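Slide 14.
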Amino acid sequence: MSESYEVIVVRHGTRLTKRSDVYLNHQVYDESDGPHRVDYFFWIIRNADRTVIVDTGFSGEAAERRERTVLVSPAAAYAALGIDTNHPHQVVITHAHYDHMGNLGLFPNSPVLMAESEVRFWNSPVSTKRLITHFTDAADVAALGEVRHQNRLSTFTGSTEIAPGIEVIEVGGHTPGQSMVRVTTSEGVVLLTSDALHFWEELERDMPFVSCTDLLGVYSGFQTLRDMLDRGEVDIVVPGHDSTSLDGFAPLTGPLENNAAVIGRIG
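Slide 15: predicted structure.
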């Protein structure tokens, strides 16, 4: 079995907002407000042996309700990449927010992996509080419950290697079980941070995102990232929502032109 993969970064949505809507307690930084772009991604890890789906983006219904701009529908993106969503590909959900697990129904036969602490949280009373539900979608949580009912949901604590060269790492902070994915590629070890790091500025200036269930956990996650980089455990970091997250990687052409790039080559 091969231990090297290509990682496909797909930008499926975007929105233009302001900095005070993005950074927690922005006013304490004593700087003027201004525009800020948020891009929305999901990721595919694959080689000749397997395909792993990392998050499934937001649904069309959620995009319309929240006034997000859809650049390409996830279903169309999977089709363009030749991915049969009826095949039982491994799906990894890094956390249960609306923009990360909005299309679980596209993968009716797939096993789904999520941190145990994340699953417990979304089945607890506090998950119904308004500041929590604002960042999720009831239909998505119900879909996760159906996956669990069908015995397709598995969980982990800490970290787990789901295949040779692919490790899922729990960091918390943004949500209780927020996870990252580390992948071996021909261009080095890639770290898909998901929302452990939305934007580079968070890491550069210790500026947490507006939504977090554990502020100390967010800061700890930033330090975990720095330590991984300092120790040479990762070579390429891909933030979860930064407008530069496609920059520097080989762009894809065709239906996903300008909205997808690949890291690493196989075959």
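Speaker note: DSSP finds seven helices and 14 strands in the chain.
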